[in-house]
Amino acid sequence: MASPLDLDQLRSFVAIVDTGSFTRAAEEVFKTQSAVSMQMRKLEERLQAQLFERTGRMTKLTDEGGRLLLYARKMLALSQETLTAFDEDSIEGFVRIGLPDDYAERLLPEIMARFTRSNPKVELQIACESSSSLVEHIEKGHLDVALVCPMRARHADIVRREPLHFVTSAAHSVHLEPILPLAIGRADCHWRKLCIDGLNGIGRQHKILFTSWSATIVSSAVLAGLAVSVLPECALRSGMRVLGEADGFPRLDDAEISMLRAKTSDRPVVDALIAHIRDSLQNLIPAKPEASVHQIPETRVIRTQRLRPGMVAAGW
Predict the structure, then answer these.
(1) Residue 47: left if φ>0, alpha if ψ -120 to 50, beta else—which one?
(2) Residue 1 falls inside a structural domain
(3) 91, pLDDT greater than 90
(4) Would residue 2 count as lying in a domain?
(5) Engineering a disulfide at 257: which of 99, 131, 160, 243 sits with its beta carbon 3.0 to 4.6 angstroms away?
C-alpha cells in the first residue's frame, strides 16, 4: 500500500506557490530554506514528478506542479476543517457579508459550503445589492465584508480576475440584429461602460433595451432571446452562449472582484471568513455556459435581504 502524502510537505509546497520563492516560503512555515528544499525533493521523489522549474532566481510551477496545487489546497483545507470540527474553542457569532447578485449564484456556494461546516457556530448574514450600495454599507458599518467591483472603492483588495464576456441566448439569434439590443447595468456600472465603449470602438450600432443592477433580470432578458449582455465568467448560466471575435464582438478587459472590510470589523470570525473567501476564490473552477446552475447548500442560518437606511445587524 502506498504511503500517504505528508501534509507538512504540502503546506510548504503551497507556501512556495503563494509567496513566489523558497526563501519567503521558509519564513511562512517557520523552517529554514534548506529544510523546505529538502521537503520538496522528498515530495518530488514521492510523486515521481518535477514540481518546479527554476530559471535564474525565478521559480515557477510545472504542469505537474499545477495539478498537485489543486489537490494540496483541498487536502490542507480539509485537514483544517477536521481540526476545527473537534475544537471546543472554535469561533462563534455572526458575520455580515455582501456581494452583487452577479456573483452570488456562482460564488456563494463556494464561499458558504466549507465555511459553515468548519464553523458550525457562526451565523452568516448575507446581503445582495449593487457594488455602490455595498460600499456605502461597508463605510457605515452595516456590513463586515463585501465583494465588489473595484471601480466602486479606492482601497479595495483585488482577490480575483476573470474574463468578461458578451453573452447571448444559445437558442436565439438576437445578436445578429442590425441594431443590437442590450440588457446591462445602470449608468454607474463599470461593465456597462466597457460594453458601450467596446461596441462604439468597432462601430456596432446598439440600443439599451433593459437596465437593471439585478443579474437575475439581465440574465432573464438574455435567456429569453431579447437582448445581449456582458457578464463575468462566474455569472454564466446554462443556455447562454459566449460571443467572441469570430461573432464580430470585441474583447473586453477582465472583470475584477475586490474585497472590502469595514474598519470596525476586527473580530476573529471576520478574519476567518476573509481567509476562507481568499482560499475559495483561488480554487474556483472556471464556469462554463453549458454548466448546470449551482445550488446554494443548506446552512444552519442564512438570511438574505436588502439593507434599508438605518438597518443594522440586530435588526436583520
Answers:
(1) alpha
(2) no
(3) no
(4) no
(5) 160
> How many domains does the chain fold into?
3
The DSSP code for 313 is: G
Domain of 175 in residue numbering reads as 164-253
- Give 137's contacts (C-beta < 8 A, 6+ positions apart): 98, 127, 129, 143, 146, 307
Domain boundary pick from 59, 85, 111: 85
Say whether both 172 and 152 belong to one domain: no
**Are 202 and 61 found together in one domain?**
no
The residue type found at 103 is: Y
Whether residue 169 is found in the same domain as residue 45:
no
In 243-258, which positions are buried (b, 16+ CB within 10 angstroms) versus exposed (e)?
A: beeeeebbebeebbbb
Cβ atoms of 167 and 193 closer than 8 Å: no
Residue 264, all three cell numbers: 470596525
Nearest Cα to 160, choosing from 230, 85, 258, 81? 258
Cell numbers that stand for 257 in this block: 472582484
Q: What percent of the chain has pLDDT over 70?
A: 83
Does pLDDT of 306 surpass 60?
Answer: no
126-139: average pLDDT: 88
140 shares its domain with 175: no
User: In 3-state terms, the chain is what percent helix, strand and coil (to 5)?
Assistant: 45, 20, 35
The DSSP code sequence of 58-127 is: EEEE-HHHHHHHHHHHHHHHHHHHHHHHT-TT---EEEEEEE-HHHHHHHHHHHHHHHHHH-TTEEEEEE
What is the CATH classification number for the domain harbouring 294?
A: 3.40.190.10
Are the beta carbons of 107 and 283 closer than 8 angstroms?
no
Q: Identify whether 112 is part of a domain.
A: yes
User: What pLDDT, on the 0 to 100 scale, is given for residue 223?
Assistant: 95
Under the banding of pLDDT at 50, 70 and 90, the label for residue 27 is confident
